[in-house]
Amino acid sequence: MLDLVMARRERELARCAQDALAPAVKAQTADAETRVTVAVSTAAASVEVPASLMPAILGALDAIAQGSGVVVVPTMRDFTTTQAAEILGVSRPHVVSLLDRGAIAYRMHGTHRRIAAQDLLTYVERMDRANSAAQ
Q1: Do 86 and 123 lie in a common domain?
Q2: Both 39 and 88 in a single domain?
Q3: Is-above-0.70 flag for pTM?
Q4: How many angstroms separate the CA atoms of 105 and 119, rounded?
């Protein structure tokens, strides 16, 4: 998993990319036929990116531009309690406690707990909503 605090130059590049791509996303929402093509200068090539991915890409660029790390997680993946703890930024014993209390759904794989990516995302979204409501 890649979770790095970005250097200043990388943050600047992310902000520039975000500024360049944002109009394409706005156009895409207005016109379903809009296509987004990204040029890769080192490969002297360009690639068409599905317009439906642009909000996620812009979100990642925004996080990087602000100096945050970004983790891309396939939704069909399962996590160990250690991996879930890294993603949540808490200790593994705290994750186990959340599982035991039923705060996060999980399944057993032999004697090991496995957490589906979607269940972890559901928990994060629920906590974000609760934190927003509390403010």
Answers
A1: yes
A2: no
A3: no
A4: 6
